[in-house]
Amino acid sequence: MSTLAPPSERLWWKEPIEKVEILWIAIALSWGIVMFIMMPYWHVVGKQNLSNEAYKTTPEAFQKKAQAMVDKYTVRTEGERQFPVVRPPAGSDIYMVARLWDWWPIFELENGKSYRLHLSSMDWQHGFSLQPANINLQVLPGYEMVVTITPNKAGEYSVVCNEYCGIGHHKMVGKIYVKE
Amino acid sequence: MATTTEFRTCPDTGLLFHKPAEKLMKANAVVAVVFLLVGGILGLLVGLTRWPAVHLLGDSDFYLTLTAHGINVLIFWIIFFEIAVLYFTSSTLLKCRLATPRMAWLGFALMLIGAVANNIAVFQGNSSVMFTSYVPMPADPLFYLSLILFAVGALIGCFVFLGTLVVARAERTYEGSIPLVTFGALTAAIIAIFTIASGAIILIPTFLWSVGLISNVDPIMYRVIWWAFGHSSQQINVAAMVAVWYAVAAVGFGAKPLSEKVSRAAFLLYILFLQLASAHHILVDPGISSTWKIFNTSYAMYLAVLASMIHGLTVPGSIEAAQRKRGFNKGLFEWLRKAPWGNPAFSGVFLSLIIFGFLGGISGVVMGTEQINLIIHNTIYVPGHFHATVAAGTTLAFMALTYWLVPVLFRRDLIMAGLAKWQPYIFGIGMSGVALFMMGAGTLGVPRRHWDIAFSGGAMTHDFPTTAYTLLGLMGVSVVLAVIGGGLFVLIIVSSLLFGKRKSMTQKSAESLIVEPVTSYQGVGIGKMVAPGTFVLALVFLTAFVLYYFVNWKYLSETWGIS
Q: Beta strands A74-78 and A126-131: pairing type?
């Protein structure tokens, strides 16, 4: 019978399976296992993996740490709003504040060097989207995420917000400069 | 036992309709189409704003419209239609009275009140929080309350469906096991109950927070539980869509499943392994371990993906086998060439299947891979993916079924039948364009839910490559095409319901509305394979899948080091 009526064979679970189905299930299942293995495999050989490092924090505590870094390593300011440009030493902890509607401060990093980037939001949820490298991370209030980033090409990068955060969302852009 | 006067037998299909159930199906289906119309118009406005050369709406109107668009089509259109499908697959297919029609009307009323109230909340302007309403961005309390009301209504619908299954079994209205299509609907209902419970668990505290009774809702907790609602609700759509595929294969071709066991097991996999779909949404969130992410997105072997790949083979496979049995047995593809391409119920389902698989399925698995998500999360690639799955896949399948329901359920002739032949193609091609061009722009980093990627007026700006603008322009053109296709659907269906020639409730129509079922697939196919053409198509699909999957690993390997 058709799919609109009860199976004609009452003991339908004892019917044989069509050959084409068995073959396809075997292929699809194998492919599923390959796709699964790719994820742990990339943790071993790949260079792009998120760390599991994150902390509970508060906007005040995070802002304080970011301010201390800015006070110590600011090399100049930019634009009408005197945005600090921070040049932290390679390997150091750097703090980027997400808030309505800025990424603060601007960083100047060295190509090929690693930095421990800390991200947290002062208010609503934001999306850290580094362009054109196209790295995208979720930034939440109350949580501090730590990722080690290693730029692989010099140039000017933008941090676009890609989590909707209200009326100024489309103006929320930050900068990271990567120098040779 | 219900009295026989409460039933009518469709003279064309032999289906037995319980009149109170029929009224409910009609009401739910009609309201669904109204919300599709509203959501579609809003979608047009969104599309015309993201088309950079047009940039129609202002910023706050854009965010408001986008919020309303998402909720109207993704929740209201789909769930109202699904409730109609639940009543059809239980009451009608099991030849049984619907359990508690009064409760079903109560559910319908709650859903309708919730849907209208939600639109009021959004259009008042202080609830432009998007479909996801991530805390701590606040919306009007009415926004959450209306969604809760809608959810309770939908939950009542699910229980009426389950109740009807119980009644049918107790009153022995059918022999043996429930039909495969009902089994698919049962899958959808079970997932729906889990989904709606998750929605309630997170929206109730969020509502209390919005009125000041709770001080704080944790954003990670919100995201994990909200997505158990937000993503699982899309799994209801998948299960319902696949059930509709099987249904159309049966009415259009008399196809029986290649084997009941495989198709039912695949539905079972959905129930067991789709549930933590929320994991896919928090792959780049703080505080969630890689082990958790890897396991919960794949369960070590992608069993839900396996289930969809099985249905993707067995539905066209059963159509192929049925066509071969009817004499189109030559070569690999005679069955497909001689398929009724001018019948919108068939072409709608076939396009739904192809677009869902090739565009929606592959992109979904790729972006749900832990590390690859880094280069896709929250870009416009994501709406590209779900326009392929929900807007093209589910919506096209439901449109296809509606073409069949107009004469069978509503007993009206389809008017503008010539136009209806073209409608699935216009909508399908348009929506494929929408999905593809969004994915293309997303690969270039274009953010989703963004009013102006030129960042005009911002203190700092970013220049996206010109290709991104071109792709968004092409997306805009595709949006217009898709909206024309969707508009034609609403026009054809609504005018058929209002002005189509009434069909006799007792006399058989001239044209056949259901194909005599094939009873056995003995002796068809090539060699020992009943559906060799479908198998070849499946291998083409697999090749595309494998290539695209590894291309994305290559993209990933080229970006900055992250550890």
A: unpaired
DSSP B36-72: HHHHHHHHHHHHHHHSTTT--S-HHHHHHHHHHHHHI
Range of the domain at A71: 54-179
Helix (H, G, I), strand (E, B) or coil at B338: coil
Task: Please tell me whether residues A31 and A61 are part of one structural domain.
Answer: no
Same domain for A58 and A145: yes
Per-residue pLDDT at B14 exceeds 80:
yes
Q: Between chains, do B258 and A21 touch, taking CB under 8 Å as contact?
A: yes
Sign of the alpha-carbon dihedral angle for B527, B533, B536, B542: negative
A35 & A96 share domain: no
pLDDT at position B279 is 87
ipTM above 0.90, yes or no: yes
Helices (H), ranges, B409-531? 417-443, 466-499
**Residue numbers of B between 59 and 78 with CB closer than 8 Å to A:** 59-60, 63
Q: How many CB atoms lie within 10 A of CB A43?
A: 16
Give me the mean pLDDT over the B171-178 stretch.
94
Distance of alpha carbon B542 from the chain centroid:
22
Mean pLDDT for chain B overall: 95
Q: Given B251, B303, B378, which is nearest A129 (Cβ)? A: B378
A59 shares its domain with A145: yes
Residues A82 and A136 occupy one common structural domain = yes
CATH number at residue A130: 2.60.40.420
pLDDT of B511 higher than 90: no
Number of domains chain A is built from: 2
- Say if residue B1's pLDDT is above 50: no
Query: Residue B238: pLDDT above 90?
Result: yes
Pair A44, A100 in one domain: no
The answer to whether residue B319 neighbours chain A at the CB level (below 8 Å) is: no
Q: What is the pLDDT of residues B355-398, one digit of tens each?
A: 999 999 999 999 999 999 999 999 999 999 999 999 999 999 99
- Whether A99 and A159 map to the same domain: the answer is yes
C-alpha A104, offset from chain centre: 17
